Structure formats: C-alpha cells, structure tokens
Design the sequence.
C-alpha cells in the first residue's frame, strides 16, 4: 500500500468518525438518518480506494450495490419520519 | 501523467468529503447539516469515482472505469433525492428550525398537507396551490 492510499484511508476514516459522532449525539431522528446516509456514501468512497489499491473490479460492484441499498433504506426511513400510517 | 491527474482529482474529492463531514458536526440544525453534508459528500465521492475511472484507464482496466462512471452517475442522481426526502420528513415531524433562520418557504405547504392528512389519513397529497405569503403578489 502506497502513501497515497494510506492517507486516503485515514481521511475517510476521520470522516466516518465524524459521522458516528453525529449519529451518537444527534438530538433528533432526522439527524441520525442524515448521518447514516452520509456514512453509506462514504463506504462507496472506501470501496473506490480499495479498487484503486488492489486493481480488482469487484470492489466497484460492491460500491454500486451499497449505493443502491443505502438509497432504498434512506427513503424508507424518510417516509417513516413523516409519521403517516401506511399499513392500516 | 494520467495517474498523476487521477490522484489529484481523488485528493480534491477527499478534501470535499472531509469538509462535508465537518459541516455535519458543526452546523446548528438538521436542515443546515443535511444540505452541507449532502452536497459536499456527493461531489467528493463522485470525484473519487472519476479519479478511480481515470486511473483504471491508465492501467487498462476498461470494465472498472465504466463501472466507476456508472456508480458516479447513480450517486449523483440518488443522494440529493434521499436528502430531500429526509428534510421533508424532518419538517413534517416538527423538528424545529434554527432560531437564526430567516425564511420558511415550506410552512404553507406543510400546513395544507397536515390538514389533508388529518381529515383523511390515507389521502394522496393535495395538489400544490397558488403560493401564499411572500410570493403571493408576483
């Protein structure tokens, strides 16, 4: 692993810790939802740096799948936050 | 040469990611935090993906480059939609605005939505009417 990848992983790890700080401390549920969404986008960045380091294709496949699942999960949480009853 | 440009693009994207996460921690309410973090982290991640695509072109990984561009387009389309949905849900669940806010453009629409849902909880959203308040005369 070269110096560039080490620095990139360090910066992304610092970003993830800031997101975890907001998830733990956020005063309301939408704060935590926003932070979880941002954390999902950061994981896509982690997968990109892994692909750059190892020169393997499948990390980008993981990134695409992760972005898809994160989007659907965030939309579900956002509809839950509106507070309407959908199942009755 | 191509790899140097790619690493520079990735470095700028990492800086955007870091500033967005600092905004996520430092700004005063949900709406400010959501807009700062979403814009910065979306652009940062797309720049990381574009840099990886360029670097992959440099070593001949065509499939990796194409998939990275596809993933960048997907993130660019979905991340703002998700943030918009979260902020709408936050407003409708009565998360207060920061006390220094000067504009509340969603207040009339949120009142209409709440009135419609109170009369019929399963109704569709009412149509968007004429603007009231500040934009009424224009």
Sequence:
């Amino acid at each position: 692993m070269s110096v560039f990848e080490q620095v990139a992983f360090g910066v992304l790890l610092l970003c993830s810790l800031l997101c975890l700080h907001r998830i733990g401390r956020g005063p309301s549920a939408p704060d935590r939802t926003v932070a979880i969404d941002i954390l999902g986008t950061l994981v896509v960045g982690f997968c990109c740096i892994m692909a750059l380091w190892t020169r393997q294709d499948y990390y980008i496949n993981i990134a695409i799948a992760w972005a898809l699942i994160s989007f659907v999960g965030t939309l579900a949480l956002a509809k839950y936050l509106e507070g309407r009853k959908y199942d009755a | 040469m191509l790899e140097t440009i790619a690493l520079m693009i990735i470095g700028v994207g990492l800086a955007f990611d870091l500033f967005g996460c600092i905004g996520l921690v430092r700004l005063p309410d949900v709406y400010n935090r959501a807009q700062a973090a979403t814009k910065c982290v979306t652009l940062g991640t797309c720049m990381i993906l574009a840099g990886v695509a360029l670097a992959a072109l440099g070593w001949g990984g065509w499939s990796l480059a194409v998939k990275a561009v596809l993933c960048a387009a997907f993130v660019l389309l979905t991340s703002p939609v998700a943030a918009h949905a979260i902020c709408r849900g936050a407003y409708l669940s009565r998360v207060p605005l920061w006390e220094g806010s000067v504009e509340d453009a969603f207040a009339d629409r949120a009142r209409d939505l709440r009135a419609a849902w109170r009369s019929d909880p399963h109704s569709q959203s009412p149509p968007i009417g004429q603007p009231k308040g500040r934009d009424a005369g224009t």
In short: Chain A has a mean pLDDT of 90.
